[in-house]
Amino acid sequence: MQVDFEDGWTSGRYIIRTKDGEAVSTFSKAGEKIVITDHTEVDDALRGLGYGEVLMEHIVTDMRSQGKKIVPLCPFAASQFRKHPEWADMLN
Fold first, then answer.
1. What's the structural domain count of the chain?
2. Which domain CATH number covers 73?
3. Where is the N-acetyltransferase domain (predicted)?
């Protein structure tokens, strides 16, 4: 499964594109060391198939490698942090 990353000056997003739809998770940059996950959306045809979790895994892995912390404002992102206590070190 390919996850694309688009990085802007103040925000970014991770996207999975399939023939059946897209899954997207967006974040805002809050300084040099903090990102705020603010929205996750998965097209109806892809819901319940783990696409949202894959997006969150990529965000956590990438931000960890960059030495950044995450504020999970998005309800889905917050729920994923509760399900993955091993990500606790990434919380700001």
1. 1
2. 3.40.630.30
3. 6-92
**Do 40 and 74 meet the contact criterion of CB atoms below 8 Å apart?**
yes
Distances (CA, A) of 88 to 14, 28, 50, 80: 21, 20, 20, 11
Q: Are strands 11-18 and 4-7 parallel, antiparallel or unpaired?
A: antiparallel
What per-residue confidence (pLDDT) applies to 1?
A: 84
pLDDT confidence of residue 54: 97
List, as own/partner pairs, every contact residues 71-78 make where C-beta atoms lie below 8 angstroms and the sequence separation is at least 24, other chains included. 71/30, 71/34, 71/35, 71/36, 71/37, 72/37, 73/36, 73/37, 73/38, 74/25, 74/37, 74/38, 74/39, 74/40, 76/25, 76/40, 76/52, 77/25, 77/37, 77/40
Average pLDDT over residues 46-67: 96
Q: Which domain holds residue 66?
A: 4-86
